[in-house]
Design brief:
This protein is mainly beta and 282 residues long. The protein has one domain: Beta-galactosidase, Chain A, domain 5. It is 5% helix and 48% strand. The strands form 3 sheets. A 9-stranded antiparallel β-sheet has the order 6-7-8-9-21-18-17-12-15, with no helix packed on it. Strand 8 (121-130) and strand 9 (133-142) form a beta hairpin. The chain is globular and about 45 Å long. The protein starts with a strand and ends with a strand. It catalyses: alpha-D-glucose 6-phosphate = beta-D-glucose 6-phosphate. Belongs to the glucose-6-phosphate 1-epimerase family.
């Protein structure tokens, strides 16, 4: 397989295709700075993109890895999940060799962003494909003259063969906010997280790696900088109500998101915050 980085058209959206000689590949949309696909060498697709996602360059894309900034979910006055996932990102750097491909995308404040959120910033998103690993690093810089607060997430939609047969390990004993119970705080008592109905949880202060097991394959997930992990699946009724997801789409996905959602990050003027999510196909 040819290694490198190509500028492509993805169903009408400007995008980048990253590939390695071993056969790893990822597709990144400049609309939203959003990873839409990741296939490790010799393996199947690991990122879920809804087959009915709207790809018009204006509507948030259902699936992939949306970048939530400067607001997670509806936890503030901004549009849900902020404005970064609806913005056009700029390519800042491209580097590749036979064994890796790395792109850096950038997003800066402009007239439209300041009308919603009156702060100066520069967000840098690094996406690395290497062997069986996908690494996404987000760097948020306060380029203004006063501190600001934000919440953020890498809203990762993982592709699974059957969500009811999937097992998420590594969250035993962690406290979580159950968003299906008005944010009630609970403790995870199970050795694994099973999806047997709608799940919408924010796990707090997660420092150890997670492992998603399904049938004959697994996925290791590690985060740095992000204190929280969001686990989400809309299940049958809510999936059917989403116009950009098939009725049975919930069976093929599980969101395991790196997040700073419970406590907003305060970023002083001139300072930088860094978060990373790494996934390794096993």
């Amino acid at each position: 397989m040819k290694a490198g980085i190509e500028h492509i058209d993805f169903h009408g959206l400007p995008a980048l295709s990253l590939s390695t000689r071993a056969g790893a590949r990822a597709v990144v949309s400049l609309f939203g700075g959003q990873v839409l696909s990741w296939t490790p060498p010799g393996g199947g697709e690991r990122i879920y993109l809804s087959p009915t996602a709207v790809l018009d360059g204006h509507t948030p894309i259902r699936g992939g890895i949306p970048v939530c900034f400067p607001q997670f979910a509806a936890q503030g006055a901004l549009p849900r999940h902020g404005f970064a996932r609806n913005a056009i990102w700029q390519v800042e750097t491209e580097r590749s060799d036979d064994d890796f491909a790395l792109v850096t995308l950038g997003l800066r404040d402009d007239v439209a962003s300041r009308a919603l959120w009156p702060h100066a910033f520069h967000v840098e998103l690094g996406i690395l494909v290497e062997d069986s690993r996908l690494d996404i690093e987000i760097e948020i810089e306060n380029t203004g003259d006063a501190a600001f607060e934000f919440t953020a997430a890498l809203h990762t939609y993982l592709a699974v063969r059957e969500v009811e047969e999937s097992r998420l390990e590594g969250l035993h004993g962690h406290m979580f906010h159950d968003m299906n119970a008005d944010g009630q705080v609970m403790r995870e008592s199970g050795d694994v997280v099973l999806v047997e109905g709608e799940v919408d949880r924010i796990y707090r202060d997660v420092k150890r790696p997670l492992l998603l097991r399904e049938y004959d394959r697994s996925l290791g997930i590690n985060t740095e900088g992000f204190p929280d992990v969001v686990v989400w699946n809309p299940w049958e009724e809510r999936s059917a109500a989403l116009p950009d997801m098939p009725n049975d789409g919930f069976r093929r996905m599980l969101c395991v998101e790196a997040a700073a959602a419970v406590v907003p990050v305060t970023l002083p003027a001139g300072k930088i915050w860094l978060g990373r999510q790494t996934m390794v196909a096993l």
